[in-house]
From TrEMBL:
Protein encoded by which gene: Nadsyn1
Protein name: Glutamine-dependent NAD(+) synthetase
Record's keyword annotation contains Nucleotide-binding: yes
UniProt KW Nucleotide-binding keyword: yes
Pathway assigned to this chain's UniProt record: Cofactor biosynthesis; NAD(+) biosynthesis; NAD(+) from deamido-NAD(+) (L-Gln route): step 1/1
Domain (CN hydrolase) ranges: 5-276
Amino acid sequence: MGRAVTVATCALNQWALDFEGNLERIFRSCCPWKEYHGVYKTPQSFKCCSGYGCSDHYYESDTLLHSFQVLEKLLESPATQDIICDVGMPVLHRNVRYNCRVIFLNKKILLIRPKISLANAGNYRELRWFTPWSKARHVEEYFLPRIIQEVTGQEVVPFGDAVLATKDTCLGAEICEELWAPNSPHIEMGLDGVEIFTNSSSSHHVLRKAHARVDLVNSATAKNGGIYILANQKGCDGDRLYYDGCAMISMNGETVAQGSQFSLDDVEVLVATLDLEDVRSYRAEISSRNLAASKVNPYPRVKVDFALSCPDAVAVPTCMPIQWRHHSPEEEISLGPACWLWDYLRRSNQAGFLLPLSGGIDSSATACIVYSMCHQVCRAVKNGNAEVLADARRIVNDETYIPEDPREFCKRVFTTCYMASENSSQDTCNRAKLLAEQIGSYHINVNIDAAVKAVVGIFSVVTGRTPRFSVYGGSSRESLALQNVQARIRMVLAYLFAQLTLWARGMPGGLLVLGSANVDESLRGYLTKYDCSSADINPIGGISKTDLKNFIQYCIENFQLTALRSIMSAPPTAELEPLVDGQVAQTDEADMGMTYAELSIYGKLRKIAKAGPYSMFCKLINMWKEICTPREVASKVKHFFRMYSVNRHKMTTLTPSYHAENYSPDDNRFDLRPFLYNTSWSWQFRCIDTQVN
């Protein structure tokens, strides 16, 4: 029997296929705990050797080979000695590829544990690359590659669904999705006497999601007792997702250690010393648990000649429960996309960002996220983060530079550009200029009228016809085409200035173009294909207009950006149609035929509630019964689905966006739907009409 045990977990900012960097970050996570006896260390999310987002690279034998080469380095290293280590990698067993945890101690592999429940919904496609282990409580022999045999002296090791029995306790592993499954392995493992559970996860950030993960971990041990150690990846590992850390350690239903959700630290380690007797006494009085345990089908046990506790550790202080602090949605928007932008900037080897700043809410919110990134960089450097300092110096091309003032750093890495036309108002120009001054960006004013007239002139020369806006007697087709020309010219100019602005200023490097279309506009298709929404990346593409307005208010209060007050009060407008008496006559909601608040509801019903036109109508006649008649609801639903389906093709070219909402219309892998619809929806709308009548 043992008492005090020390367990550790971590959140590592791993990068897909960056084997060298991934190995270095694993080593850094191991170093602080050499002073402890018998640490059970679970380094990071699964796939920590290769990074998680390898996608179809998992098919390549190179990915398997390099993962084993990383494992070889870990086994050989003194940094991993006297620590039970749990790392993730793909493993080919009998010509079947599995997503595995490899658990080892002192140059010996104890167990290779394949994943049982694969993540295969939303952003995840694990069944495309891996096969779930379907043999419950079954272990087979796995023949190790020669490079591993030479280190461990083992020819075969256990492979399958088993647990580890040390001299003083019993340990079991879950992998990511298994925590979320209705029949999580920790239930049966706990009944079979497992006292310490580990879970290595790649769980991405979604607004208002963190509490769900925390609740799942705490509930895993609330009913059954035990110690639960969650490791979660952090950072952008090469795509639209931001993995938000939140590593944690829980015991008997309460959190005892909490990691940060958003951080620029590439390596974050949590450690907790806990008393195993607390687990045993907690379980002792749960009679229903003990009755179930007496009938459980036992797991195969791999015996480990090692103890996590010391015989004389009675006086060792143990950790007490803490209260988890959750960020508000506005804080999440300020921190998550900013961390994602920093990862993308430093890993793409670019010199900064360029943003077409219109003076509206969306582009202003994007600018505020970049400003928040600058705040986090300065804070990290002040706190002694040498890696962030080195990255900042490389980005600004100054080996002696120290980012101390967010506005000054913003001036170096962020260029904003107001692209005026004859349809732009002086108000939006002034708002953009004032915001740029307050955040410190390098600001440019450009007039695009000459370029627009040149493009329209080419059309007129070829066809002999000159299109006109509706207010001048033109048709809706003419007016829309003239608006699209302005929008697309802005995209062309944005990329031109991104490539050559620093050159013109005598500075090296190029800039990444930022887009600023929100999730609601994308859902409705209220954007010009290949306009300023076409960019390199978009930090707000998964965020609703409602949340962005709240975020703007947060920035007014927390960053003292007073320029945002007038931006908040102005009606959203594209400013693509002629002004009336010098004032904007065009507004987004009038153009769309629906409000942004309605769009958020449509989006959640369409994606999260899985509602087609008829089901959406059925839900909304109850939700809106106080404000709309059934016929009005039917008209709104039909209009939304017509516009959504007419514009769905635009999602195929949508700029890669930070994933923050579960109703995102991202066509790449999250929201898989046709982009050529029968936009009359005749059968579906007829069903609605029948109910209305």
